[in-house]
Design a protein that fits this description.
alpha/beta; Aminopeptidase; about 35% helix; binds zinc ion
């Protein structure tokens, strides 16, 4: 990259930050209709009417080549790099191992594999197991949140979360007969996990100075029929029993990723995140713009002729928002294969996993800087991260 281009790019980025982040995000946040919906109740994209009900294609074994529009890695050349080849291999293995809806026979195997990866990454891993009654059948199911702690001694902590369960139904599928069958969930229930496994491997190399990180894989996000209140069973339980992991102080922030593997990835800032965690939302999207991650830029600006569709979404970040913890959801819900049998490996890409992973790693580094600055700051100026000592756990 020559210096002229650098100046142009920096100018463009600063312009985007100035115009889009600071004013655009604010005005978008105000102008977008604040209409609470659950993922189960969201209107599917219009393209979803064209689903075929053909058997799933064979998952790809190799990551695709990075497209020209992928994240510019030079911005973080000094930082550990998100390895999309490894993330893609994880995703492939997660999907190949089998579906993970509640009651699925392969769940213990899946838990064991996820725990193994997180321990190998250096995490202090524990399982949070609980029983959840399915309201329609009145059958009790055992659900399991998987928690991996990095730098567990630190009090300033951030949660990176994603759900590891997949959906028992395919209510959006064009084939009515197949709507009662469990989905593969390559994007929904697998892509976020693959990204977090790779981030977990990078955490120690990041050499965070003030921040502790908890990677939490939530169970039971899909625990619920459309219109029910049963979604997000794992994160609700985790938030209700927060003192189990946070006896003194609450986590300073929560970043949940869900459906981050779409080949055509776009991340409009989610509305509840803007409303309830504006600083953390701005920090993440600012890193997305700085790294020139197309999904984050398109999510703010739209693509030609298409306005980004920001929604108020209920997901695993919601229970934390109810505890007044800044919690952000990064999601691309404009995914025609959502809750269908076409949510398979051929619809997701390694480049999309990398975009998400790179921006999350950059966000972690920024949060770490803030944690160090706020702990060394003697004055009462307002930090990006509020000192956790101000928050007493319930
Ligand atoms: Zn889902």
């Amino acid at each position: 990259m020559d210096s002229t281009n650098t100046r142009v790019d920096q100018s463009w980025i600063q312009s985007l930050l100035g115009q889009v982040i600071f004013t655009g995000l604010l005005s978008l946040g105000l102008s977008w209709m604040l209409r609470p919906i659950s993922i189960g109740a969201a209107t599917p994209p219009s393209t979803s009417t064209s689903h075929s009900a053909q058997p799933q294609t064979q998952p790809q074994t190799q990551p695709q080549t990075q497209p020209a529009t992928s994240v510019a890695v030079t911005e973080t050349a000094a930082s550990p790099q998100f390895d999309e080849t490894r993330a893609w291999r994880d995703l492939y293995e997660i999907v190949e191992r089998g579906q993970r809806y509640y009651g699925a026979p392969k769940r213990p195997e899946a838990i064991q594999a996820l725990v193994g990866h997180l321990r190998a990454a250096g995490g202090e891993v524990t399982l949070q197991t609980f029983t959840q009654r399915e309201p329609k059948s009145q059958v009790d199911y055992q659900l399991t949140n998987i928690v991996a702690r990095f730098n567990p001694e630190r009090s300033v902590r951030v949660i990176l979360g994603s759900h590891w369960d997949t959906r028992l139904w395919a209510e959006e599928d064009a084939d009515v007969i197949k709507r009662e069958l469990p989905i593969t969930g390559a994007n929904d229930g697998s892509s976020g996990v693959a990204v977090l496994l790779e981030i977990a491997r990078q955490i120690q190399a990041l050499q965070l100075k003030g921040l502790g990180v908890d990677v939490v894989l939530f169970d039971g996000e899909e625990f619920g029929r459309p219109g029910s209140q049963d979604y997000c069973a794992g994160s609700r339980y985790f938030a209700q029993h927060l003192t189990q992991y946070y006896p003194q102080v609450k986590p300073t922030g929560v970043i949940v990723i869900d459906m981050v593997g779409d080949r055509d990835l776009t991340f409009p800032p989610e509305q509840s995140s803007i409303a309830k965690a504006r600083e953390l939302t701005t920090l993440i999207w600012r890193e997305g713009v700085r790294l020139r991650a197309p999904a984050f830029i398109a999510g703010l600006r739209g693509t030609p002729g298409v306005r980004p569709r920001s929604r108020w979404i209920i997901d695993d970040h919601t229970p934390f928002q109810k505890l007044n913890i800044p919690a952000v959801l990064v999601i691309d819900l404009d995914y025609a294969q959502w809750h269908t049998h076409q949510d398979t490996m051929d619809r997701v890409s390694a480049a999309s996993l990398k975009q998400t992973g790179d921006v999350l790693i950059a966000s972690l580094l920024r949060l770490d800087q803030n944690a160090v600055n706020s702990s060394s700051r003697l004055s009462h100026e307002r930090p990006d991260l509020k000192p956790t000592t101000q928050h007493k756990s319930p």
